[in-house]
Amino acid sequence: MVRFNVPTFAVLIGFWCIIANNSPAQEKSLDADLDPFIQLPGAYKLTPEDLPKMFPKGNWNRNPYFKWLRADKTRAIFQKKDGQVLKVNLSLLGGTVPIEEAVIDFKDGKFLGVTISIFNRGDGGSIDSADFNKRFQEMGKHLGKQLDIRPTRKEAKPTQGLLTSGYIWISARGKAVLEHNEEAPGNTEFLRMRLAQRKAQGAYEAATQARAGATVRLSDLPKNVVRDAGGTVFVNNIPMVDQGSKGYCVVASAQRLFEYYGIACDMHQLAQIAGSDPERGTSSIETNRELGAIDHLFKTRFSCLAVRDRAGLVELVDNKYVGDAVPEDDFHKMIHKNVEAGIPLLWSLQVGQYPEEPPLKEQTSGGHMRMIIGYNDKEKKILFSDSWGAGHELKKMDAHDAYRATSGLFLMKPITR
């Protein structure tokens, strides 16, 4: 083995994702009251068709309030904006509680639930204790009234993988969680709430559990594999997120995996765990080290399958040493094996070097992390997904080009069988 010299590796790059601004050339400030999504039972009657009626785009090229994260309109995101051209203020409780973003989920054409980032460091920068306590207390009172039940305390137990503190409400009316990182309010990383139908599964159900780990078993994942007559094989039902303009493509991709596995942990919480800087991004080596250190807490197993050395893709042994070479055939065997098992792979690469379908618009060059979710041997293509919202669920690249562009390939899977 050769000693692993970290600075010489091409994988020590920040992952940047630049989202284009498509707003009219005029200054505008808009307000969006998101109370309809947290008022019961009215929220349960909302449909995807209601969103553009409640928040019309007006004369803007794109709706300034929200965008769909999936083309099938099962997930939408509202994000606070504070740009030179457009400012959008999001709030709850009649405008008294400002928030950073809200993700709305629909299932079978009806509102399923909402996840709201009341505060996160990546978007909000910092928050003082008085402001934190005000938001926390007001939202807690509201959830208690909506669900008509007293909450149970959620205690952080890091050694057991329970990394948040807060309260849980569960009643016939639905279920809700209001939680924050253990160090808050003295050192607040995030303050998050979830509210959903009682039957909601996935991250909504996982957030109410008194144990860590995936709520989806490893043996259930192959059910998500889709095959078509043209030779395409891919993993379906992967939740979509939008990392925004932050260098969060690593933790955004990890959040998608966690949601897919039924683990309630978002990119802001993962950014804290991984030590991500929203302005700098996250290196794949740092991601390998940090997520590798906490994977057992979530009952997942994280491993580095390959990283790029000067000579090409190689194995990484004990996070310190260069191991054997990873030939192109082995690279594609790894993809096939995991896709067949219903497991997407985290894929770091240099974008813009090779053509892809559809052509890249959001980011023309630089380091980035995606998810490899499938393949087509007849077309000699790999299938991947970006964490940029609707239209990025399923894309293609020549298989040989994908191998040459790769900086790192990573596996994270649940251990619950």
Question: What features would you describe in this structure?
Answer:
The chain is of the alpha+beta class. The protein folds into 2 domains: 2-14 and 220-414, Alpha-Beta Complex (Cathepsin B, Chain A), CATH 3.90.70.10; 28-211, no CATH class. 20% of the residues lie in helices and 33% in strands. It contains 9 helices and 23 strands. It has helices at 50-54, 121-124, 129-147, 203-207, 249-260, 267-274, 284-294, 328-340, 399-405; strands at 2-3, 28-33, 66-68, 75-79, 81-82, 86-92, 97-99, 101-107, 110-120, 152-154, 164-171, 174-181, 190-196, 225-227, 232-235, 300-309, 312-317, 321-325, 345-351, 366-376, 381-385, 395-398, 406-414. Strands 1, 14, 15, 16, 17, 18, 19, 20, 21, 22 and 23 form an 11-stranded antiparallel sheet that branches. It has an 8-stranded antiparallel sheet with strand order 3-4-8-9-13-12-11-10. A hairpin with a 4-residue loop joins β14 and β15. α5 (249-260) packs across α6 (267-274). The longest helix has 19 residues, at 129-147. It is globular. The two termini are 34 Å apart. Residues 1-25 have low confidence and may be disordered.
